Amino acid sequence: MFGLLLTVVIARTLGAEGQGIYSLVILLPTLLTTFLNLGIGTSAVYYSNVKTLSIDSIVKTNILFTLGLSCLALIGGFILIHGFSDIFFGGVPEQLLILILLATPVMLLNLVLQTIFQGKQDFKSFNIILLGGQFATLIITYIGLVFLSLGIKAAIVSYIAGQVFSLLFILYLLRKKHSVRFREGKFDKHYLRKALDFGLKSHLSNILAFLNYRSDILLLSYFLNPLAVGFYTVAVNIVERLWIISNSISTVLFPKIASLETEGKKNELTAFIARQSFFITIMMSLVIVWLADPLVIFLFGEEYRNSIQVLLWLLPGIISGSVSKIIANDFAGRGKPELNLYVSIVTVTINVLLNILFIPKYGLLATAFSSSATYTLNLMIKIILFKRMTGYAYGEFIFFQKSDFHFYRSVFQKAIRMANRS
C-alpha cells in the first residue's frame, strides 16, 4: 500500500513524464543490485539456519563481501551511464543517474541481510523491514515534493534515504532480535565458498526473472520515451498490488518446503497454496477490471487515462504470475533452482523478441501483451515440470478440490464462532 501511495504522490506532482524519468532512474541501482549480488541473499536464507555456522560470521562475511561487490557495482554504474545512457535512459538527466548510484551499496547490503530474517522464519521482522522502508520513503518524498516543491531530485534523494533507513533498521533488528554481534564474527571463507556455490545456482535465474520483469521498461525507453514509461509504470504499480498475497506466501514457502521431510507433504502444500493464490488473484483482478477507469482517474488524474488499457492487458499475466511464483519457490526449496533458470531462459527470450517486434508498431499495449503472454507461458512450463516431477494432475494447481471447500467452510465457521463470542 505504501508503494502505491508513493507512486500516486510522484505521478501527481511530477506528471507522467516525470514519473517515467523517476522509474528509469531507480531502475539503474536495481539493475546493478540484481546482476551483482551473486545469489548471496538466497544463500543466507538457507545457511542462516545451519547450526554449525555462526550467525555473527555469516553477517560479517556477507557485509564485507558485499562492500567489495559494491565497488564493482559503482564502476559498472559509471560505465552504463557514460556508455549506454542515450540508448536505455534517453531523456533522463545524467546527474540524476549519477546521484542514484549512491543507493547501490545500501541496496546490496539490504538484500543480503534482510534474507537472514527469512531464513530464520522471522517473517514479522522481514515484513516490518519492507513496510518500514516504504513508509520512510513515502513520508520523505511527500515532504520534498508536496510541501517543499523540490522536484524530481528530491524524489531521488528520498529514495536513497529510504534505503538507508531500511539498512539501519535491519542492523538494529539483527542485534535486538537475533543477538548478532558483528565484532564477534569473523570473515568465513569456507562459508563464503559454500554460499557462492549455492547462490550462483539460482543467481542467473533471478537475473532472467528480473529481465522478464523489467526489460519492458528499458525497451519502452529505447523505442518510445519517458512519457510512455510513466504511463506503463503507473499501470504496473496498480496491478502488482495483486501479487502481495503470492509474494508473501512465496517468502514463507521457500524455507518451509526446504524443512519438510516427505515429498508427499511438499507436493500437497505447494498445490494447495497455488490453488488459493490463483483463486484469490482472479477475484481481486475482477474487482480491478470493474474499478479500472474510476480508480486510475481518482488516484492519478485524467493525464493517466492511457494507463487504463495497459492495466487491463497486464492482468492475465499477473494472474499467471501469482501461481508461477509459488512453483518457483517450491523448486528452489527442493534444491532445484536450475529449473527456474531453464524456464526463464525461454520466457525472457520470447518476451524481449515480442517487445522488439511489436513496440514500434503498437506501442504501450504491445508491452503489456508481451508481459502477459510470457508470464502465462512461464506458468504453463512450470506446471508441466511440476507434474513430471510429482505426478500431480494439471488441474490440481488451478481448480478447486473438495478439500479446499472443506478448508474454507471450516475457516468461515471459525470466523462466525469468534464473532459470536465477541
UniProtKB/TrEMBL annotation:
Topology of the protein relative to the lipid bilayer: Multi-pass membrane protein
> What CDD domains does the database record attribute to this sequence?
MATE_Wzx_like
Which domain of life, per UniProt?
Answer: Bacteria
Keyword terms, alphabetized: Cell membrane, Membrane, Transmembrane, Transmembrane helix
| Gene Ontology cellular component terms for the protein in this record | plasma membrane
Compartment(s) of residence: Cell membrane
Can the keyword Transmembrane be found in this entry's annotation?
yes
Task: Fetch the Pfam families from UniProt.
Answer: Polysacc_synt (PF01943)
Instruction: Write out the transmembrane intervals.
Output: 25-50, 62-84, 96-116, 128-150, 156-174, 219-239, 278-301, 339-358, 364-385
DNA-binding: present as a keyword of the record?
no
The name under which this protein is listed is Uncharacterized protein
**Native organism:** Mesobacillus campisalis
